[in-house]
Write a structure and sequence with these properties.
This protein is α+β, with helices and mostly antiparallel strands and 817 residues long. The protein contains 29 helices and nine strands.
Length: 817
């Protein structure tokens, strides 16, 4: 391929450095200052990244403004650890827990956990805590005491007494397994430790693992469940996230080099994107934020968006240099052509992320802030710094020639590359019709499947982790050994002070309990009303005929006085109805919550009000409600913002439709994919749906901006789109495939959440790319009319002062070349 010779001095001399926009002149006429400032900022923020913490907070994952959570917070101090808690089941190696060595190990482990920072010691419960008591009927009347008998010494007599006390305590199925082979240490947690510092979940989970190793070395088996342990396992899995991030960077680097055949430009594109990640991570601790397992994907998204924009700038400069334009001019011309499209795309990304701020869950809001910060720094690193750096380094001669091989072949009358020829056919009526009809059919099928998308978790255990993970095996052990899962939904029943034991109030609770136990998904319940039934049987020689709720106020007051405080508070103004669920699946939670709400609507009075909700399942039910409300609202706002920015850029509603419809198809298909993969819409997955829209608009903006510019010059749609393919379309395909390959490697991650997100993101990258390359030109065939394009660009020419000079300068210099 012949490259024309160039008089660089003449080309540089002819160029008016006062041309171009004010921003362009300020940047490129002071290139060295910009590079030095960026280097200083990178060094400072790189140092700040050493202060970045990776942690999580239970409180940040719940919607604090929801009525359920507000009611829970109102009475939290009066509830027995129904918020954030860990359950530790210790299994006896000798068959049952009635073994002196096992009980001694259980006591020592309970004592060590009691002293851990962040433990709510007042509400902690095990066989060895004084709060675990028994109540029974003897010849002398109602009696009770600690489950561990007084003077316990491990003798057979003491063990037999312990066995009797456990039976009378009602703790079988609670802290003692139904088969008697294990016992639970229930550990409620505080948001802050004694010194006022937030609970460090990584450190706390580390303490639990050390205790597990210590006591399993003595022969017992230890099983741990709870939010703190999930977060601990996810934080441990961050090492794999870093590994896969490195793999994605390596794949992106290799692919860009394969495309460019230029080491310097490849390294600059990757470096600029990594600098953006460094700036983002450095700004987070500077602004008082930290990373958590749910936002750990944000740095990769910033890198992915940076690679997309950086590759476009590199490609434009490379092609201009291949045409013989000096590297400085090539950088400035590319800046002029693509800055507006790049800025619009990044603003669309930023707005898409910022929309997540409307969701009343702090962890999602912090993710939105982290992502918005990342997108903001990309404006400096990839739209500004990268072109300036390339204006110094340029690209290799071989890479410049290589970048124009298709264009030169086309000018010489050679046949088009088969792939570009195939894509160009979608601008013609036949293929455009087939593409639109095919997209419509696929979209309708996806829409039908997406209607099955559920809110919340769809699996038992922790769906963020693999089904065969240690944590989920521990959950299965708990479910099998204790007759129910650890998922508890608590209903709070308020009454005037001292009146919680009134017959009318307890009778309503008794009625609600009976109805709840008939619901699928409810294993059992517990309340002061149920205790009265059991006590009536005990007081009448265990005759099951007395298993009734007797309207005897004196008896109710007596039973209440000896009942565990977990069933009512000290002032006898709050009763707690515990509902033990089979799992925390979305359908289970929804059915129970709707039933309780309907019951409360009919039965609430001044003497008894039924309030939702406490317990881990109650908090998750509130979270599901907020996520469901925010889901469609979030998508509407994201698309509204993207459409508005596209309208400002293109000044044509037809162009907006052409750009946005492919994104909508991807969103529908992504939701259908979530159904197929068994994923629900929840805190961990909700942001990804919005992020896919922001990333996808980049592809459409780059292709459509060049296509419209070519149409303005009088070219046909086929010619305009073909030029867009040669200029920006190749890079769209490159980045889409590269990033999809990079994230699809995440399926090998031990963290299921990361593996699922890898599949979902890879799908979105590919479908957004295909939408921009296939569906966009097909829609353009039907919607982008010549008259509309002329009107569009007539509006854009209203301010021609600096732009006209820039175009004239560029045309004059190119003519000299």
């Amino acid at each position: 391929m012949k490259v024309p010779s160039v008089d660089l001095s003449a080309a540089t001399a002819c160029f008016d450095h006062r041309s171009g926009s004010l921003l362009e002149r300020a940047l490129f006429n002071n290139r060295l200052v910009v590079v030095i400032l960026c280097a200083i900022v990178t060094a400072l923020l790189g140092w700040q990244t050493t202060k970045l913490e990776l942690n999580a907070s239970f409180e940040k994952t719940i919607p604090t403004a929801h009525p359920y959570i507000q009611e829970f917070n109102t009475y939290q101090s009066q509830l027995a650890g129904l918020g954030n808690a860990v359950r530790i089941a210790v299994e006896s190696p000798k068959g049952t827990i009635y073994d002196p060595q096992f009980l001694d190990a259980l006591r020592r482990m309970s004592d060590e956990i009691f002293l851990l920072p962040g433990v709510d010691r007042l509400n902690m419960k095990s066989l060895w805590t004084p709060s675990t008591r028994w109540t029974g009927v003897t010849e002398e009347g109602l009696e009770g005491g600690p489950v561990i008998p007084e003077g316990y010494d491990g003798s057979p007599a003491s063990l037999e007494s312990l066995r009797e006390n456990i039976v009378r305590s009602g703790e079988i199925g609670q802290i003692v397994a139904t088969d008697g082979k294990s016992s639970v240490i229930y550990v409620p947690l505080l948001a802050k430790d004694a010194e006022g510092r937030p609970l460090d979940y990584a450190v706390f989970a580390g303490h639990l693992e050390k205790l597990r190793q210590k006591y399993e070395a003595e022969g017992v088996s230890v099983h741990i469940t709870g939010f703190a342990k999930i977060i601990g396992d996810l934080i441990d899995g961050v090492r794999s996230v870093l590994l896969f991030f490195a793999v994605a960077v390596a794949i992106a680097t290799a692919t860009v080099f394969w495309y460019t055949r230029c080491v310097r430009s490849t390294l600059l594109v990757v470096t600029a994107s990594l600098v953006a990640v460094v700036w983002q991570l450095g700004l987070l601790p500077t602004l008082g934020y930290s990373l958590d397992p749910y936002s750990i994907l944000v740095p990769f998204l910033v890198f992915a968006i940076g690679m997309s924009h950086g590759a476009q700038k590199m490609n434009g400069i490379m092609q201009d240099i291949g045409r013989g334009i000096p590297k400085l001019l090539a950088a400035r011309f590319t800046f002029r052509r693509l800055f507006l499209a790049g800025m619009t795309a990044l603003l669309a990304d930023a707005v898409g992320f910022a929309v997540l701020l409307v969701i009343d869950i702090q962890v999602i809001r912090e993710l939105a802030i982290a992502a918005s910060i990342g997108v903001a720094v990309l404006i400096f690193t990839n739209l500004i710094l990268l072109p300036i750096l390339l204006s110094y380094t340029g690209v290799s001669a071989g890479a410049a020639k290589h970048s124009l091989r298709t264009e030169v072949a086309d000018e010489q009358g050679q046949s088009k590359h088969p792939l570009w020829a195939f894509l160009d056919r979608f601008t013609q009526r036949r293929m455009a019709t087939l593409a639109v009809l095919g997209a419509t059919a696929i979209g309708l099928a996806g829409l039908v499947v997406s209607t099955q998308l559920k809110i919340g978790d769809l699996d038992p255990g922790a769906p963020e982790l693999r089904p065969d993970s240690r944590y989920n095996r521990d959950v299965a052990f708990m479910n099998a050994g204790y007759g129910a899962s650890s998922d508890v939904l608590a209903v709070m029943v308020t009454s005037p002070d001292g009146q919680c034991s009134l017959y009318d109030t307890l009778n309503k609770i008794d009625s609600l309990e009976w109805q709840l136990r008939q619901l699928p998904g409810v294993e059992t319940t517990n309340s002061l009303s149920l205790l009265n039934r059991k006590m009536m049987v005990g007081l009448n020689e265990a005759n099951p005929k007395w298993y009734e709720f007797v309207p005897n106020q004196s008896m109710l007051n007596t039973v209440t006085a000896g009942a565990p405080r977990g069933l009512y508070n000290d002032s006898c103004s709050l009763l707690t109805l515990y509902i033990y669920l089979r799992d925390h699946k979305a359908d289970t939670l929804s059915a129970v919550v709707q039933f309780v709400e309907a019951f409360a609507l009919e039965n609430n009075t001044e003497d008894a009000k039924f309030l939702l909700a406490a317990g881990n399942a109650g908090i998750e039910a509130a979270t599901n409600i907020v996520v469901k409300e925010a889901w469609r609202q979030m998508l509407f706002l994201v698309y509204a913002a993207v459409a508005l920015l596209s309208l400002i850029t293109f000044r044509s509603w037809r162009a907006v439709v052409v750009a946005v419809l492919p994104l909508m198809l991807t969103s529908v298909l992504a939701e259908a994919l979530m159904v197929i993969l068994g994923m629900g819409v929840k805190v961990a997955t909700l942001p990804v749906i919005a992020l896919g829209v922001g990333i996808g608009i980049d592809y459409a903006l780059y292709i459509l901006s060049v296509t419209l510019a070519q149409l303005r010059e009088g070219k046909s749609l086929s010619e305009a789109y073909y030029r867009a393919l040669l200029f920006t379309g190749k890079v769209v395909m490159l980045t889409g495939v590269t990033l999809a390959i990079g994230v699809v490697t995440w399926v090998l991650s031990p963290i299921k959440f990361q593996a699922d997100m890898g599949l979902l993101l890879a799908f979105m990258f590919l479908w957004n790319m295909l939408g921009a390359l296939i569906l966009l030109p097909a829609l353009a065939h039907f919607l982008l009319r010549p008259n509309d394009i002329a009107a569009t660009f007539a509006l854009q020419r209203s301010d021609e002062s600096s732009a006209a000079k820039a175009e004239a300068s560029q045309d004059h210099c190119v003519a000299i070349l």
